[in-house]
Design goal:
By secondary structure, the chain is mainly α. The chain is built from 3 helices and 2 strands; from the N terminus they run H-H-H-E-E. Helix content is 67%, strand content 10%. The protein has a two-stranded antiparallel ribbon. Helix 1 runs antiparallel to helix 2.
């Protein structure tokens, strides 16, 4: 961003020195401002993605802490079901599927 601002200032100096015309100065200024807007939008999008990822990390840390607190275990109790399992599904053939509250790293 600083580099674009420096280029805009250099462009202005070139205009004031008579090296470029007013039309060229205005066109290049608009081009630099469009680039700045694109960069600002990308920064905003990346900031939002970082916030989502940070939230996911925090959720994972909570799940990991809960897992460590409740392990080791051989069978599930109600508290463990509430912490680890989102839902249990049964398909049309009667097969059970477990939807976990966390992502499997494997």
């Amino acid at each position: 961003m600083l580099m674009l601002q420096n280029k805009k200032f250099d462009n202005y100096k070139a205009y004031k020195a008579g090296i470029i015309t007013l039309e060229v100065f205005k066109k290049e200024k608009r081009d630099y401002e469009k680039r700045e807007e694109i960069i600002d939008n990308k920064i905003e999008a990346l900031t939002q993605k970082m916030e989502v990822l940070q939230s996911n990390v925090e959720d994972s840390e909570v799940t990991a802490k809960e897992f460590n607190r409740l392990s080791p275990f051989e069978k599930l109790n109600r508290e463990m079901v509430d912490v680890f399992i989102d839902r249990i599904e049964i398909d049309h053939r009667g097969r059970l599927g477990v939807v976990w509250n966390f992502e499997d790293i494997f």
